[in-house]
Amino acid sequence: MRNFQHFNPASLAQATTTLSSKPDAWVIAGGIDLLGEMKNGIIQPGTLVNLKTLPNLDYIKFSESDGLRIGAMATLAKIEAHPDIRKHFTVLSQAAHSVATPQIRNVGTLGGNLCQRPRCWYYRNPAFHCLKKGGKECFSVSGENKYNAILGGGPVFIVHPSDCAPALISLGAEVTVAGPRGKRSMPLEKFFILPTENPLRENRLQAGEVVTEVHVPPFHDAGSSSSAHRSVYLKVKERGAWDFALASAAVSMETNAGMCRSVRVVLGGVAPIPWRCPQAEKTCMGKQIDEALAAEAGKASLAQAVPLGKNDYKVEMAANLIKRALLMCSASSASPR
Amino acid sequence: MIDDEKTQKPIPPGQDQEYEESEVNIEGRRVTVRTRKVPPLPDWTKTEIVGQPVPRVDGVDKVTGRAKYTSDVQLPHMLYAIAVRSELPHARIKNISIEKALAHPGVHAVLLPKDVERYIMGNPFAGTLPLLTLEPKYTGEEIAVVAAETELQAEDAARLIQVDYEPLPFVLDPEVSMTDKSPVKFFPEGNFTGGGFGQRKIGQPSVHTRGDLDVGFKEADHIFEETFRTEPQQHACMEVHGTTASWDGDHLTVWESTQGVFGVQEEISRVFTLPMNDVRVIGTHMGGGFGSKGGAGKQTMLAVLMARRTGRPVKMVLSRHEDFMGVYRPASIQHYKVGVKNDGRLTAIEMKSVNAVGAYMSGSMWGNSSPMTQQMYACANVRTEDRAVFTNTPPPGAMRGPSNVQNAWGLEQLMDLIAHKLNMDPIELRMRNDVKVDQVTHQPYHSKGLAECFKLGAEKFHWDEKRLRRNDPASTKKYGVGMASQIWGGGGGPPATAIVKINQDGSINLLTGAADIGTGTRTVMSQICAEELGVAVDRIHVTNADTETTPYTLPSYGSITLASSGPAVRSAANDAKRQLLDLAAGSLGVKPEELSSKDGFIFVTAQPDKRMKFEAAAGAMPERTLVGRGYRGPNPKGQSLNAFGAQFCEVEIDIHSGEVKVLKFVAAHDSGRVINPHTFASQVKGGITMGTGYALSERRLIDKNTGVPVTASLLEYRPPTSLDAPVDIEVYSVDVPYTANNIGAKGVGEPPLIATAPAIANAVYHATGVRVKSNPITPEKIIDGLKSLGGRT
Predict the structure, then answer these.
(1) Cβ(B69)–Cβ(B286) under 8 Å?
(2) Looking at the domain assignment, is residue A245 inside a domain?
(3) Could you tell me which chain B residue has the CA closest to the CA of A235?
(4) Considering CB atoms only, which of B152, B697, B780 is closest to A239?
(5) B702-726 residue pLDDT tens
(6) Yes or no, beta carbons of A337 and B712 under 8 Å apart
(7) Phi-psi group of B72: left, alpha or beta (phi > 0 → left; psi -120 to 50 → alpha; rest → beta)
(8) What is the value of pTM for the model shown?
(9) Which of 3.40.50.300, 1.10.260.40, 1.10.357.10, 3.30.365.10 is the CATH number of B5-67+492-631?
(10) What is the ipTM metric for this complex?
């Protein structure tokens, strides 16, 4: 790791101005992902702009009328344990809980989790000057690609590593970013970009911009006796802790009298962005969810998958996860079998 | 270290009658050494301290951070050294530019291959390794070393060294390397040699053969042909490899994270032609070795040279990334053909193994995976061939249960497969092939508690009941049970010397050269010493693993530490006690042989109230100090000393996700007398945890297109976390009497890892019908396996 300046800005405005004026300035929140990249020599910041000392960026606010607002600096540990999140936004609490280890969740922030860089081992290894780092080749294509993308890949085949992003997209979340020219908001789903748009980046943040807030809107008729909202996050990994998803599924569903009234299905670990599955949603809309329908929804979502040679297993795994998550969210079968 | 040359050293004239020959089995290698005849001590019939769960004597030091490891050593004016490593798996280096690095602030020196070429590590038997090279043969091989005043300066300087490579062809896959298609020729005679400790010849496998395979296969009712594969396993020690070296004039002190300070001392002394009394190696506390720290490392020699060059102490501790580019357990491919009678008796075993051993001869010692096949089950017709195949990968080394761990993955799954086919209890199949004689040496086992392990383990696990349980076909969760068994050495042997010093206040210093590699050596040696002297453990202070202050013992490898050094410690304590009783006899007016020492008192055995305090006797010592010496005597002649065990496990598999969870383990081991149930259980639990990683998640992978390792971190290599280690591990000792040494104990360091992974694989099969023949058993393999079974997922 190279030497660097550590800068505590007095305000968010000063943070974004510094970030946009210095080309080798990087933003640091929890630092979990950033320090790894610095130690591996992937990036060599001259200045780190620290957000930890800025006030009022780590809140978690919930009301029935406004929904959920989370400051970008809220830690994953706070999110997973928050009673309102556990109660109303289970998928998010489960996703935050599934990240890495308790130590990392105590330090890692929501903003950092959404903006973390890919975990592809070619990207993380300084020995490979890969396409993601401005090189010419995505080494995973003919290399060791068991963890790489089966959907939306090309020309790079990373998978987006965030657990919180699929969960939040399934909840219809919006993200707010602040930059030197002020704040702007967009659906979180639109925040992420495919490598065809820019192979070097995973999101729409512009120079000097940082994520400041995530907002989850309230549900339409929470409180109506016949309607229910359930959400779930399922994640498969190769070991019990400190591992990224081989595949994950976030499903958020509103049912009324056992019928699916609205549903969002998002996969993690299978594509360069959190992967929304409209086919699964269409399959379920207006219907009562049973085993056959859930299985069909899962299969339909993966119909376009293009495995790379060593990641075929993800197709079946992701379809299974969608099926199970849908069944868990539907009122008829609340517990997994 | 023991090598062949040394075992043949003549004994000085006139001393022959005091010595005799003894066989020692280290990591499966049998060596004959001469050793002092030691007067036998009576077996301990009833023990007060030995056998008790005494807390670790250094536990508080360790948990408070007070224990000083090699990485903790800080010396005034110390420099930090870092290696420049090859970025390519095979290359010729055309030029190395060091000017920029030398001009970097804080940099003191750079060592290049030409500066160190006269210093060669290793020996002709083991194979040699260059310290630095101009023709790297694997990614990560050392090319140059730079030393600077801070770690950061050294890192920056290492990056400023410009290496110009001419890339050369490379080969990673041993099955390619063995053929004519190999782009690299390692030796004119071929790209493989025999694996293991025997005479190895390039181009020829090492072979064990007995009986007649044709006859055996003709007798068989069933013939099984199967291939199993194992991935390389990395040691991933909590403390990475490292050295701090400091010269004081011509006297060298080296702090080394090592399993054996004397091996390191010998190697330094030989490589640099230094008298041994000028080479002090200290390794009191160290954070795990698992075989990877059996002797000196390249960083040891480079730190010593750099310290000499700069006139400053030099610390060279590898980064975790560098550590992962180094030593490991080699990969294996095991082809089996086995003949079996309807009643389960084995009639023939043919096994051919291919083991990838890196680019240097030194790796070939670890390139065999057949010792269990040769020994474990009664079979008259056996042929094994082990090929150690050269590849452009780092040199492998010993790793906890070398060879047997790989071998058990194949053999113990094969036995399970046969049992299922014959519709027989896997325990019953194993018992039908039980054998009391070591089929390789033709010597009887001194003791073999395997049947007892099966019986006790099966009972505690409720094997009979659990084995017959059926899964709910509608559930996505499947449960299964599996078991496996193991054999290992662990009898220990000479040479080992210990010194027990009694001070005038009755306090005791125990000096032993033995390393405590996290196993609890210091604690169990204190217990042995305390038991023999009849005093409490807290009266004893242990000094260990320091070549200047402690006497020689073999390194802590091959599960030999307890059974090698333990008997020497008892002998030394006994020697000290006899001297003290001689003195006390005068004060108490009796003959020394009428006295006993127990609970801090020396008393007349027949008249216990006629007594004096231990410290009172010590206070009367005319020399104010008393020194007891003890030696490890020979092992019994004509017997094989082995440790046995059986492990049982239960798994839960989610057939949707492919995830495997280990719910329970029951381990029953035959290790002779258990000195400390705490440290015994810790060893077994540690082995099972390590085996769980080997079975389920750990994988070292080198990118096939570039030859660069892509799993060189704790994240990407995936050792088990606390959530992966089985929560419920029950550990049992079968306590079969063992009298081959004066403490009645065998080693338990390596045995607990050997059966773990195949037991899990067998349970996975029992749960799902999927036979996973290559480790690790990842979700991907379960999903693919279920798919090929056509099962519903």
Answers:
(1) yes
(2) yes
(3) B657
(4) B697
(5) 999 999 999 999 999 999 999 999 9
(6) no
(7) alpha
(8) 0.97
(9) 3.30.365.10
(10) 0.96
